[in-house]
Specification:
This protein is of the alpha+beta class and about 850 residues long. The protein has 6 domains: about 5-65, no CATH class; about 65-350, 7-stranded beta/alpha barrel; about 350-405 and about 430-465, Substrate Binding Domain Of Dnak, Chain:A, Domain 2 (Up-down Bundle), CATH 1.20.1270; about 475-550 and about 740-750, Immunoglobulin-like, CATH 2.60.40; about 560-720, Golgi alpha-mannosidase II, domain 4 (Beta-galactosidase, Chain A, domain 5, Distorted Sandwich), CATH 2.70.98.30; about 755-830, Immunoglobulin-like, CATH 2.60.40.1180. Helices cover about 30% and strands about 30% of the residues. It is built from 18 helices and 48 strands. The strands form 11 sheets. A 9-stranded antiparallel β-sheet has the order 27-28-29-30-39-36-35-32-33. It has a 7-stranded antiparallel β-sheet with strand order 24-25-26-31-38-37-34, with no helix packed on it.
Length: about 850
């Protein structure tokens, strides 16, 4: 018998009395059976214990234990199922040294967490920790004594880290590489802190069909599909299954149980709702195991929590409290289940911050572009700015914390003021800076982009310097430009570079072979259509006028006209009207063409929507011989962008991190694109910051939601039905622009054109990066077919190694040839 069972304290008796209130409520709620209980007799015994009438500690203990056994028998007569409880604390976040929500006051938050853990340790209650890993890191760096206290306590009790992500994002909202980096940096940080995580549990909806593959790649053993706020996930009968991901990876997973209100949704009232939880067991006697869970904001006071924990320390009265990993060892998994993207949904309120969505995506694009350029320059020099890239990723991961989207306007102290008594709140150390969490994150995201583009330009110039032929000068060249393609596809696209010059009329632009090409120079920016090999560059030169270029034909694929009623834009592709664009607005509007400018590089239109005394502005761009319309909407009063296709549509597809699937829902969310497939053609709508759509399942007319005023960026392309690979290519080319920089003037170069990936890969490139002397590549097979990939022509002569997401070697790649199964993600290291 443990020390807990050898003595009782007065607080234990008070807890016994309060728990009896829960049992009485359970009996009153239960119409199925009515056990005869002498309520008054039990109260007399409890009151005798409270008053110390027995004057005998051993006698008090015996009476206390008999009452507990009576309670146990009362519940046992009503319930046949085994009941398990998973309880713990949720919390985050600290951004740029400013605490928000549960961490409004980081020191108070950690002290409160320690109190919860001490109570759990005292009463032998396993406590599951879903605290943002970045918060643990901050506490360790800024208050090492407090962190040492936490670690000491953690190692003594039944505590478990259950969320390995660095900042607890909504994984469906962020890009593929960000999904990987969230877990990678989370696990790496935990290891540095002396902690580990073997469970992926996210009380905020952060799952999708590729999560099993990601977890297996990180050697994480267990998963959960339970969520408590702003989202829904699939359920199962048993609650403990094997979840099969899109690629076939399988992982033991906890789910909600069909028809069971599991407790997560009793926000702040879980323990006082135990009578309702118990009654579910009575009403469903056919369910062998019932699993109730509550991962609650840990600074929030919870009624009956301490009382239930104290009594459970003596006896498993209501069921067994356990840790997540422990649960999977106690319950057998029941069946294998595979879910589609349509089985997951996110709450509408999450999608309000259009600026945050736009800058998050632009940050992902900027960091990956910088990583790829840094990879390439590694062919010339060994120095790698590892610290810069580590910091850039960590900053971005901070800004992806779910609270940025769930409570975007919350400021330091707001959450604590709602949840805590004024007496406690007044003593907290809260940041004096009154800034909302989303505004602070936007500031950081803009800094990230500035750092990335500065790094890219610097490294592109370094590449240019490496190509200079010594002792040779090209007297006729006035300006040279290095244009870099950060994608694996041969590119023909518009590039723009800052160029301040007054002698534009006397200069001619030449490509890498010396052929004159067209360009425009306006507002100190030179624009031209560049043709660049995959992961490669070309050098273009602006020289004193020698010869005129051959007049190239204008090849603009799209024509646009405003409808007679001035409510829509009719858009034709190769002379055939394909779709109509209109808008849902609070008020009536009229469209007018305000600007139409075109030259042999670019066709630009500006359409204004007149609404009473306000205008919304739509900028539309297309480039010579490039199959894409780019849109920038400056929204005012608009609620939706409406697209009405003028061809028969057979089905619609959406994408998510590492996945593309057909959707049959009417209310959908997509990471990058909505793809309508017809008999002979398809329409691809790619957006950067408006992820919510409504679609009419009969006509396939769709509406892209733009819930707030601001800037929205998207593109539309009309494609043949060549397949998903052409869609991935088009989306990638829209997101990753050609990179251009002015380099050394009046120089001759050893190679004016080169590709670091001579043959186009048949799979998608997620990232190319290096750390120190080590080079890495992440690939993704975005198809239902097995694909053979030949990497023999890569310029790096190293041997190749297949590694997991933890950088552990899986196997060596023979002959630089790999086979990728459907939807497989593969990480490759170039080994010396």
């Amino acid at each position: 018998m443990s020390d807990k069972n050898l003595r009782i304290e007065f607080n234990d008796i008070i807890a016994l009395e309060k728990v009896f209130e829960l049992i009485k409520e359970f009996l009153n709620k239960n119409p199925i059976k009515k056990s005869k209980i002498n309520i008054d007799r039990i109260y007399r015994k409890i009151n005798a214990l409270k008053s110390g009438m027995n004057q005998d500690k051993q006698s008090d203990l015996n009476i206390f234990q008999k009452i507990l056994k009576k309670f146990k028998s009362i519940i046992g007569r009503e319930i046949n199922s085994k009941i398990f409880y998973l309880v713990g604390g949720h919390g985050g976040i600290i951004i740029d040294d400013i605490g928000f929500c549960e961490f409004d006051s980081p020191v108070y938050a950690m002290n409160r967490l320690v109190e919860q853990m001490e109570l759990g340790l005292e009463n032998k209650i396993p406590y599951n920790l879903e605290i943002a890993v970045s918060c643990h890191e901050w506490i360790k760096n800024n208050n090492p004594e407090l962190f040492s206290k936490f670690i000491s306590l953690f190692r003594r009790g039944s505590f478990e880290i259950i969320n390995p992500t660095y900042s607890q994002p909504y994984s469906l909202l962020i890009g593929a590489e960000s999904n990987v980096k969230q877990i990678e940096y989370g696990l790496k940080t935990l290891k540095n802190l002396g902690l580990e995580c073997n469970v992926y549990y996210s009380s905020e909806m952060s799952v999708h069909p590729q999560i099993p593959q990601l977890l297996k790649g990180f050697e994480i053993s267990y998963c959960s599909l339970r969520t408590r706020l702003l989202g829904t996930c699939p359920s199962s009968h048993s609650g403990c299954i094997y979840w099969e991901g899109l690629d076939g990876s399988k992982i033991p997973t906890l789910t909600d149980q069909s028809g069971i209100y599991n407790g997560e949704y009793f926000h702040g009232t879980f323990y006082q709702e135990i009578p309702n939880l118990l009654f579910q067991a009575v009403s469903r006697p056919f369910i062998k195991n019932l699993i109730f869970s509550s991962i609650e904001d840990f600074i929030m006071p919870l009624a009956f929590q301490e009382d239930v924990w104290k009594i459970s320390g003596f006896l498993e009265l209501f069921g067994k409290f356990c840790g997540y990993s422990e649960l999977f060892k106690l319950i057998k998994t029941d069946g294998e289940f595979k879910y589609t993207r349509d089985n997951f949904s996110l709450g509408e309120y999450i999608f309000l911050q259009n600026d945050l969505f736009l800058n998050n995506k632009n940050c992902e694009i900027a960091i990956i572009s910088a990583e790829i350029v840094n990879f390439v320059i590694g062919q010339f020099e060994q120095n790698s700015e590892d610290r810069l890239f580590e910091d850039l990723w960590k900053k971005l991961l901070h800004t992806q914390a779910h609270d940025n989207y769930a409570v975007p306007f919350v400021q330091p102290g707001d959450y604590a003021a709602q949840q805590l008594d004024k007496e406690i709140y007044d003593k907290l150390e809260i940041s004096p800076r009154r800034v909302s969490i989303s505004k602070l994150s936007l500031e950081m995201q803009k800094d990230i982009q500035k750092s990335c583009w500065g790094n890219i330009n610097e490294n592109l110039r370094k590449i240019g310097n490496q190509l200079i032929e010594p002792n040779k000068k090209e007297e006729k060249a006035n300006y040279n430009f290095l244009i870099f393609n950060p994608t694996i596809y041969p590119r023909k696209d518009m590039v723009s570079i800052l160029l301040k010059t007054n002698d534009r009329a006397e200069l001619q632009l030449y490509n890498d072979t010396g052929k004159p090409i067209n360009y425009v120079h306006e507002d100190s920016v030179i624009k031209f259509i560049a043709t660049i090999p995959p992961i490669g560059y070309k050098i273009y030169s602006l020289k004193s006028h020698l010869e005129h270029p051959h007049e190239s034909k204008f090849n603009f694929y799209y024509d646009l006209t405003i409808s007679h009623d001035k409510k829509a834009i009719n858009i034709s592709f190769n002379g055939i009207e394909i779709y109509k664009m209109s808008f849902t607005c609070e008020h009536d509007y009229n469209l007018i063409l305000n600007i139409h400018e075109f030259n042999n590089i670019e066709d630009k239109r500006v359409i204004l929507g007149k609404i009473k005394n306000q205008d919304f502005r739509l900028e539309i761009f297309q480039y010579n011989d490039v199959n894409r319309l780019d849109f920038v909407l400056h929204s005012k009063l608009i609620k939706e962008i409406r697209i009405e296709p003028n061809f028969d549509v057979l089905k619609s597809l959406v994408n998510y991190p590492f996945g593309v699937e057909e959707t049959k829902r009417s209310d959908i969310q997509t990471l990058d694109f909505l793809w309508l497939i017809g008999t002979n053609q398809s329409l691809l709508y790619t957006q950067k910051n408006s992820q919510k759509f409504l679609i009419d399942r009969d006509t396939f007319e769709f509406r892209n939601k733009v819930p707030t005023n601001g800037r929205y960026e998207f593109s539309i392309s009309i494609l043949d039905n060549a397949g998903l690979s052409s869609v991935i290519k088009n989306v990638t080319n829209y997101k990753f622009k050609l990179l251009g920089v002015q380099i050394n003037d009046n120089c001759e170069f050893s190679e004016k054109s080169y590709s670091f990936m001579p043959s186009s890969l048949p799979v998608s490139l997620v990232n190319l990066w290096r750390r120190g002397k080590d080079f890495y590549m992440r690939l993704w097979n975005a198809s239902n077919e097995e694909i053979d990939v030949n990497l023999e022509q890569l310029p790096i002569k190293s041997s190749l190694v297949d590694i997991d997401f933890n950088y552990k070697i899986k196997n060596k790649i023979k002959n630089k040839k790999i086979t990728m199964t459907p939807w497989n993600i593969k990480t490759i290291q170039f080994e010396d």
